């Protein structure tokens, strides 16, 4: 058994002591949770509003999902766009997609304005498809993108593929045809199962390092208006009609607004003294999963890339949906002493966290999962070294899924003193950043169009 060892946390080089809250305090806005969602929410509020902000983090900044992910910057929902259209309608669903993609620019703005040094790589990323169902599903989503005016994903289908003629005519303008060997080359695989590839903008960064750097910038730039406390778990959020009181350690924090950026794995109660119960339904809002990753080192020969592989459904996990996939991200390894190699991070396996069970960061990595990832790499990634490479990292992290698979951003309908930027899923970096911006717009009472991210009213129902 191997300890949970994330390359992102290893790069932090943290020297700052954990400073918990030691007295009662008050602020305009309290942010609960110091992952990328909390830190970027603080950034936009401090930048765009004249508010006093306090951040409370139960553990350490960026040591949750933000420190245990794949670090891939990508903008898809983990649910077909067509399903989101079925739920919210065409305009709202596609506008939601556009808004998540707008976070690319927000991310660039943050890096430029705060002069962050954290490496941010951008490149064309690829996904390899191996079944007719996967191909038509992705083409359907591509049709929706084009019809809304979003940039389509480039789509290539193998010329010799025996199902090519079955692709519905309505998708004819959405793909090109190429020899399979070219597709395999894009996907860096020799696995002949892959008969199509799509390509879109992707990137990667260490989101923990980014959050750490950004918090340093916020403290330096907004000393009078910003403070944060680590090792400070919130136990109770008590809501009145225009204020909130939080119990944290032995202290109370008063605020006009509370923003939960806790991803959904909180261990506190919400008492709404100004309306219907929020607590019960809130705690059923996010279902937990644990995602597992492994990282190996390679010579520094190939450029950064991100590739997802959708294996043949009859081969992998007997997954009837065809949705399960592995994803790898390659970038130069920046940890001290390892500067001359690439770090390739691969994920895919995950496990449902039973209802009510608490995730523990200290849980060991399972050898079986590491073997599963290695076998996948051997079968699918042609650059995987022949001799088993050095694999210094193996880690896991919590993912929270809202029932509809979409991040919740905005005021709680039962009491708008409480706001959310949470419910991450396996793809949460760009949605968190967009969520930070949107929350700050709400705080400024900007008129926002209704969106797929709005918290739903059903929690008001008994
Ligand atoms: C294995 C894995 C791979 C992933 N890969 C990718 C990827 O490649 N690309 C991508 O975009 N996304 C990925 N994600 C998702 C991404 O990491 C998250 O969406 C993102 O980091 C969410 O940030 P967050 O701030 O919402 O959550 P977190 O980073 O988890 O932050 C929440 C914080 O809230 C704190 N907190 C909770 N309760 C309390 C309390 N009561 N009081 C005070 N503080 C509290 C926690 O301690 C934690 O620090 C992955 C996630 C995992 C687990």
Keywords:
462 residues, alpha/beta, FAD/NAD(P)-binding domain, D-Amino Acid Oxidase, Chain A, domain 2, ten-stranded mixed beta sheet, 10 helices, 27% strand, binds flavin-adenine dinucleotide, FAD-dep_OxRdtase, FAD/NAD-bd_sf, FAD dependent oxidoreductase domain-containing protein
* Poorly predicted residue ranges: none
The main β sheet shows up as: 10 strands, mixed
The quaternary organization reads as: single chain
Name the bound molecules: flavin-adenine dinucleotide
- What is the CATH T-level topology of the largest domain? FAD/NAD(P)-binding domain
Work out the radius of gyration: 22 Å
Domain count: the total is 2
- Total helix count? 10
How much helix, percentage-wise, in residues?
25-40%
Task: List the helices and strands in order.
Answer: HEHEEHHEHEEHEHEEEEEHEEEEHEEEH
% residues in beta strands: 25-35%
The CATH superfamily of the largest domain bears the name FAD/NAD(P)-binding domain
Question: What's the level 1 CATH class of the largest domain?
Answer: Alpha Beta
Judged by helices, strands and strand pairing, the structural class is alpha/beta
Rounded to the nearest angstrom, the distance between the terminal CA atoms is 46 Å
Please give the number of β-strands.
19
């Amino acid at each position: 058994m191997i300890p949970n060892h994330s390359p992102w946390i290893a790069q932090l080089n943290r020297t700052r002591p954990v400073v918990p809250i030691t007295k009662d305090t008050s602020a305009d806005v309290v942010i609960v949770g110091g992952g990328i969602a909390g830190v970027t929410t603080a950034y936009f509020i401090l930048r765009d509003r004249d508010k006093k902000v306090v951040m409370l983090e139960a553990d350490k900044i960026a040591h949750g999902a933000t420190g245990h992910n794949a670090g891939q910057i990508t903008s898809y929902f983990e649910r077909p766009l067509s399903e989101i259209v079925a739920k919210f309608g065409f305009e709202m669903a596609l506008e939601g997609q556009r808004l998540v993609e707008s976070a690319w620019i927000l991310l660039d703005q943050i890096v430029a304005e705060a002069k962050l040094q954290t490496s941010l790589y951008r490149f064309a990323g690829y996904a390899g498809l191996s079944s007719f169902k996967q191909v038509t599903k992705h083409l359907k989503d591509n049709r929706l993108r084009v019809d809304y005016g979003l940039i389509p994903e480039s789509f290539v289908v193998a010329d010799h593929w025996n199902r090519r003629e079955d692709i519905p005519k309505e998708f004819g303008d959405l793909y090109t045809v190429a020899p399979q060997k070219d597709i395999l080359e894009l996907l860096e695989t020799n696995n002949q199962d892959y008969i199509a590839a799509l390509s879109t903008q992707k990137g990667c960064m260490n989101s923990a390092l980014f959050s750490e750097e950004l918090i340093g910038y916020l403290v330096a730039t907004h000393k009078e208006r910003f403070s944060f406390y680590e090792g400070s778990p919130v136990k109770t959020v008590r809501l009145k009609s225009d204020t909130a009181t939080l119990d944290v350690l032995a202290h109370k924090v008063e605020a006009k607004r509370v923003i939960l950026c806790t991803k959904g794995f909180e261990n506190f109660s919400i008492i709404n003294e100004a309306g219907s119960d929020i607590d019960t339904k809130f705690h059923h809002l996010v279902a937990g999963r644990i995602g597992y990753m492994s990282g190996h080192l390679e010579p520094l020969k190939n450029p950064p890339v991100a590739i997802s592989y959708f294996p043949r459904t009859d081969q992998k996990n007997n997954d009837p949906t065809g949705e399960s996939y592995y994803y790898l991200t390659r970038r130069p390894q920046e940890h001290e002493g390892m500067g001359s190699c690439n770090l390739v991070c691969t994920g895919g396996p995950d496990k449902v966290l039973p209802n009510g069970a608490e995730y523990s960061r200290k849980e060991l990595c399972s050898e079986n999962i590491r073997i599963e990832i290695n076998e996948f790499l051997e079968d699918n990634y042609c650059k995987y070294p022949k001799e088993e490479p050095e694999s210094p990292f193996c880690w896991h992290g919590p993912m929270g899924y809202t029932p509809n698979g979409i991040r919740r951003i905005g005021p709680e309908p039962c009491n708008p003193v409480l706001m959310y930027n949470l419910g991450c899923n396996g793809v949460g970096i760009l949605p968190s950043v967009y969520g930070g911006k949107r929350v700050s717009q709400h705080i400024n009472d900007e008129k926002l169009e209704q969106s797929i991210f709005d918290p739903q009213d059903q929690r008001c129902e008994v």
